[in-house]
Design brief:
About 80% of the residues lie in helices and about 0% in strands. It is built from 4 helices and no strands. The longest helix has 28 residues.
Amino acid sequence: MGLFTTILQIVLAYGSLIAIIAAFIDALRFSKQDFADVERMPRVAWLVLLGFCFAMLLWLGGWRPDEPFGPRSFMWFASMAIVALYFIDMRPKLMNARIRRGG
């Protein structure tokens, strides 16, 4: 494996774990009422889902780019899709709900 590929896999492996942690912490910042105002999955469901993604990537070795379950695995793609859904879809709606409530 070339140096560029190794560096890219390391960046993807650790970057994905950082993205999941950032999404989890960001979801903690919003109240249950903000999630209820958005009328999507409740806060607890998002926290459990993001925590499960983090645990699965750690368990499967997502932090080790030399493992087959690293940034090339199905679980990695699924986890990144969930994180992207949170940041692209949920977070803006939560911010708008918070602004509308005056908080």
